[in-house]
Amino acid sequence: VDLAGTESVRLDLSSGTAARRSIDRLAPDLVVHTAGLTNVEACEAAPEQAQRANVGISLNVAEACAAAGVRIVHISTDHLFSGDRPLVDEAAWPDPVNVYGRTKAEAEARVLDAHPAALVVRTNIFGWGPAYRRSFSDVILEALRQREPITLFEDVFYTPILMETLAKAVHDLVAAGAQGILHVSGDERLSKHDFGRRLSQQFGLDPRWIRRGRIVDDRRLVRRPREMGLSNVKARELLGRPLGGMDAQLARLQEQEREGLPAELRSL
Ligand SMILES: NC(=O)c1ccc[n+]([C@@H]2O[C@H](COP(=O)([O-])OP(=O)(O)OC[C@H]3O[C@@H](n4cnc5c(N)ncnc54)[C@H](OP(=O)(O)O)[C@@H]3O)[C@@H](O)[C@H]2O)c1
Fold first, then answer.
1. In this structure, is the dihedral angle defined by the CA atoms of residues 84, 85, 86 and 88, taken in order, positive or negative?
2. Among 10, 37, 38, 224, which is best to mutate for testing ligand 1, by the most ligand atoms less than 8 A from CB?
3. Residue owning the nearest CA to atom 1 of ligand 1
4. What's the first-to-final CA gap in the chain, in angstroms?
5. What is the pLDDT of residues 205-252, one digit of tens each?
């Protein structure tokens, strides 16, 4: 099953030759490369697999696109810094604290080496997900609707952006000829706990199911940055518009549910 207006094709990107064959066969106008091993615990447990998925495949795709003269957007992360400063801009030097961050940081550099006109987008997303991959907002809404307690960190900060807003911004940035590294995140920095509270308010759900947690108290987790907020000033200047505060983005998330997007995604 495909999303309306899209067609899925399975691609082999595991080698440079396979990726070149795939890109040549499809002859796309634009490649937006999102694949990777994104589970932080899984990356730490299997660093070679993380290296292959996050660096190797990204490089294969970037080289194939460069050889075919195809534009590429490489989706990166906000997980690249140790988290000692809020709202870092594009000039900040990555200093990742775990395997996921290190492989994503290396991927950025390798992609830009292979394809200097690439657009590398650092971000952190929320929005409706398919049944096989629940997003952060899906997990929170499910817990609140089922009246189950959920613990959210009050000491982890980020600048989340709705997937649809990100997709539109990326297309507009490509149309404007943007290249290099750009932070394409939401306009508002907040904690994961506050994100949950704002979500509950927007959807009229009881916030008492949300418990306060602190990542510093959770010793089971792989080390993570506590501050992941990105400054999106450069992207806003290029786009000539803000990217979105939480109220507007959460209202749009709710509107998407009324329009049937979660149901469509769950059928995938
Ligand atoms: N979610 C976020 O908030 C967030 C935040 C910052 C950055 N990002 C970045 O955004 C991108 C997408 O994230 P996501 O949350 O959508 O990730 P996701 O749900 O984990 O999806 C990653 C996709 O990559 C595919 N993949 C993994 N290993 C592969 C391999 N060796 N070869 C081919 N495909 C492979 C996976 O395929 P299977 O399903 O078959 O395993 C999956 O479809 C990633 O680059 C991530 O680093 C995400």
1. negative
2. 38
3. 125
4. 5
5. 999 999 999 999 998 999 999 999 999 999 999 999 999 999 999 999
